[in-house]
Amino acid sequence: MKRYDLIVVGAGPAGLSAAIEAAKLKMNVIVFDENEKPGGQLFKQIHKFFGSKEHKAKIRGFKIGQDLLKEAEELGVTVCLNAVVSGMYMDKELTVKINNQIHHVKGDSIIIATGAAENMVTFEGWTLPGVIGAGAAQTMMNLHGIRPGQKVFMLGTGNVGLVVSYQLLQAGCEVVALADAAPRIGGYGVHASKVARCGVPFYTSHTIVKAEGDTQVTGVTIAEIDNKFQFIPGTEKHFDADTICIAVGLSPMSQLLKMAGCQMEDNPKRGGQVPIVDACGQTSIEGIFAAGDVEGIEEASSAMIGGRICGIAAAHFLGYMDDAAFEQQYEIHQQALSGLRQGMFAPENRGKILTKTEENIDISANLLEKGYLDDSEIEKYPGVTHTIGVHPVIECSQNIPCNPCQNACPKHCIKIGEKITSLPAVDETAQCIGCGMCVASCSGQAIFLVDEACDETYASVMLPYEFLPLPKAGDTGIALGRDGSPCCEAEVISVKSSPAFDHTHLLTMKVPKQYAMKARFFRKEA
C-alpha cells in the first residue's frame, strides 16, 4: 500500500490550489481525478473572473486553469487521471480504481475536493433527448467545440444559467428565452444585462410545463406560477426549441466524506448535504479536510482560496508548518476570501430580499425581473455621468466584489475605493483618453465609452464585443438597447483588438445623438 503525506481527491480549482500550497512546503502530494483532463470546471469557463487582482479578476477561467496546472507540475505534484476514488475508510485509507484495477492508498492527511453535481427538475418529457444540464452544454461547447443545439431554452437564471446562455449565443446558438420559478433573477445583474441586450427575454415566476416532441425535443411550454408554485391557468407560453438546458443549482458531491464517518448536516445555504468543518476546512475527523463546492457551493475564486487554506492547514496538521507561519498565511488567505464574501450576493444574504444598495440607491426591480436596467433609472448610479468628450458610462448597479476597472484606467477616471463591493464612480475632474482599458477589463461587460457629441449629428459608443465574425469599420447595422430591442441605425467606426484586451474586442459605433445613452449593442445587417 502506497502512503502519501497528502492525498487530494479532485483536480479542480480547489484541489489543485490545495496541492500547490502543500507541495510548496515539501509535502509528498498526489491528486486523484476521475476525468481524462485535470482542471475541473476551469477549462469550461471562458468568461473573466470577478474580484480583485489577488482573486484572479479579469482573467478567464481556462487561463487560470493553465496557470494552476503549470505551477503544480513545477512543484512536483503527482496528478493521477482516470482514477475513480470509490471509497474512504478508517485511518485515512482510500480505494482507487485505475485501469480497471483497485488500488489501496493511505494518506497522513486527505483533502476532499470533489466539487458538485448539477441538479435536475422533472416535468413532462424531461427524459427526451435534448434535455441537458447547463454544465453539459458548456462542456460540449467549450471543451469539444460542439453546439448543443440550434434553438435553446434555458431554465434557471443563477450565474450558471446566465453565463452559459451568453456562451451559447457566442457559439452561434439562438437562446429563445430564460425562465426561473423564482420571482427575480438569481445571478449577477451584469451577466443578465449582457444576455438581455442581445435580445433574449426573461420570464421570472415561470417554469416548464412540458418538453414537446416524440423522439427528441421540438419545443417547450412554460407557464407562470403563483406563490405556492402552482401553474396559473391561461399563462402558458410556447417556444420552438431543440434543446432545453437546466441550470437549477448544484449539490455537493460529499459521499466520500459521509462514507468516512465525517459529521454531516443538511444546509440549504451551502447547497445541501455538507460536512461540518472548522475555519480551516477540517472535518470532524482530524486530518480530513473539505475544500471547494463539496464544502459549500460558491464561485471558483472562493474555491481556490478555500483550497489554499486547506493545503496549509494539512501542512500545519502534519508539522510541515509552524504555528506562526501558518497563522500568517491563514490570515492572508482569509482576508482574500472575506473580500469575495461581501456585497449583495454574500452567503448571509442568500434568500433575503434587498431593496437598497450599500450607497442607499434603490435596487432596480426591472433588472431583477427582466434582466436589464430601464432607461429611466440609469442616471441614478454613480458610474453614469455626462461630460464633454469621451467618458466612461458604468452600468454596474449591484454591490459585487469586483474592482479591475479602478486599476485599469491610466488616468484614474474610475474610483471604487477600499471597499471592493462599492459601486464604481466616475471622477469627472479626470480626463478620459478613450483607451478602452476599462471597457476591456470589466468582467461584467458593464462599461461603455461614450462621446455624446462626436459631431453635430452623431454620438459614438464603444462597447465590449465577444462574437465572431468581427464586424469591420464601415459596416452598418442596428444598435440595440438595454432590453435588446432595435433603437436606431448604427455604423461601425472601428474594432480594436489587442493582447491587453484578452479577446475582448472594443467595437465603436456611430449612432444619432439622442441614442448615446441608450444604444448598447451592435447587430450587423443580414
TrEMBL record:
It comes from Anaerostipes butyraticus. The keyword Nuclease does not apply. Residues 390-419, 422-452 form the 4Fe-4S ferredoxin-type domain. This is 4Fe-4S ferredoxin-type domain-containing protein. One of its GO terms (molecular function) is oxidoreductase activity. The keyword Iron-sulfur does not apply. Keywords: Oxidoreductase. Pfam families: Pyr_redox_2.
